[in-house]
Design a protein that fits this description.
With 97 residues, this protein is of the alpha+beta class. It contains two helices and six strands, in the order βββββαβα. Strands 1, 2, 3, 4, 5 and 6 form a six-stranded antiparallel β-sheet that branches. A hairpin with a 2-residue loop joins β1 and β2. α1 packs antiparallel against α2. The protein is globular.
């Protein structure tokens, strides 16, 4: 039986986008589950650090534009990213610059 995400987005899991940012330059790997942006342009996210996957996630509210800027900065630092940045940008509903 296939699970259909409630957003209709092919990369979502229960209405959240799973984003994995690889480790690099003193930064640990990070897993984020990001909500669909709210009307005010903010997203809710749960974040885990590769330093200790067993810890409870950090619960955050972030501006979608600021979150995307942080993810793009990680990419410029040559950190791995899954899914591709275009999919993250689409999810966050931030137009390409």
């Amino acid at each position: 039986m296939s699970h259909q995400p409630n957003t209709g987005h092919p990369l979502s899991l229960d209405g959240e986008l799973q984003v994995l940012v690889g480790a690099g330059a003193g930064e640990s790997e990070q897993l984020m589950l990001i909500s669909v942006p709210h009307a005010d342009g903010r997203v809710s996210l749960r974040a885990w650090s590769g330093r200790d996957w067993s810890r409870a996630p950090e619960l955050l509210e972030r501006d979608a534009v600021d979150l995307l800027a942080d993810i793009e900065r990680a990419l410029r630092a040559r950190r791995a990213l899954s899914p591709e940045i275009g999919a993250v940008r689409d999810w966050l509903r931030v137009p390409a610059r």
